[in-house]
Amino acid sequence: MIKVGVSGAMGKMGKEVVNAVCNSDDFELVCAVDVIELDTEICKDVRIKGDLKAAIQIAKPDVIIDFTQPKFVFENAKICLENGVRPVIGTTGLSEEQLKTLKEMTEKNNLGCFIAPNFSTGAVLMMKFAQIAAKYFDNAEIIELHHNQKKDAPSGTAIKTAQMMAEENTSFSKGNCDETEIIPCSRGGKANADIRIHSVRMPGYMASQEVLFGSAGQILSIRHDSVDRKCYMPGVLLAAKYTAEHNEFVYGLDNIL
């Protein structure tokens, strides 16, 4: 039985993770951390605590699953690794330098650490399909659409998608004319290999992404839509199990599927 803690347990994703862990035969929820609704019982005598380090020291989880906020996730991950706990991170917004630091800490402490921009198997396939298509197109842009409570832009999924596509092609703006933006940033942000990323934040969306490829006479669209947070749970539990059993740093669910 793998002992699990959840950080950000009272958020929308956090509640889904708590429910998934509590209804699994492979995991035991031993602690839950958040900054709201302290001491609320959330599952099987587990109550919300406000201090991650203290919760770890008392409950001694094997894995902490983090769905908090970009401004907290890096420090949370360091606390886990410094206290012998393996973090599984679904919160996006980590910088390249922060990822490098966590990788070094993972190796130094001989632990596992798993970071995934997206835990949906469908989204992972969308990213992989975009990487395959990238070999055959010289023009591409990404549109990512999320609810208006998402704090970071572009999404981690869009950034990871651009990185994967750039592994297959060096530039996705070949043949484009010189552009003048009448309104700054109207063409979106430029990511790896000149891929433009456009971020939409609007009520009604949960998480969607469309990758557009173009060449003379044709358009290819690869799209994924998440309509219920339950779609992430199989990937989260798979990552938690993998991280509990392997002493390595992993970035992206595609690496273990």
Description of the structure:
32% of the residues lie in helices and 26% in strands. With 257 residues, the protein is an alpha/beta fold. Strand 6, helix 4 (96-109) and strand 7 form a beta-alpha-beta unit. It starts with a strand and ends in a 6-residue tail after the last strand. It has two domains: 2-115 and 229-255, 3-Layer(aba) Sandwich (Rossmann fold); 121-226, Dihydrodipicolinate Reductase, domain 2 (2-Layer Sandwich), CATH 3.30.360. The chain has helices at 12-22, 52-59, 70-82, 96-109, 121-133, 156-166, 233-245; strands at residues 2-7, 27-33, 41-43, 46-49, 63-66, 86-89, 113-115, 139-146, 189-190, 196-201, 207-215, 218-226, 249-251.
Q: Would you identify the CATH H-level superfamily of the largest domain?
A: NAD(P)-binding Rossmann-like Domain
Q: How many DSSP E strands?
A: 13
Q: Name the strands of the widest sheet in spatial order.
A: 3-4-2-1-5-6-7-13
* Distinct helical segment count: 7
Beta fraction: 25-35%
Number of domains: 2
Summarize the biggest pleated sheet. 8 strands, mixed
User: Any idea what the CATH architecture of the largest domain is?
Assistant: 3-Layer(aba) Sandwich
Shape: elongated
Intertermini distance: 22 Å
Radius of gyration: 19 Å
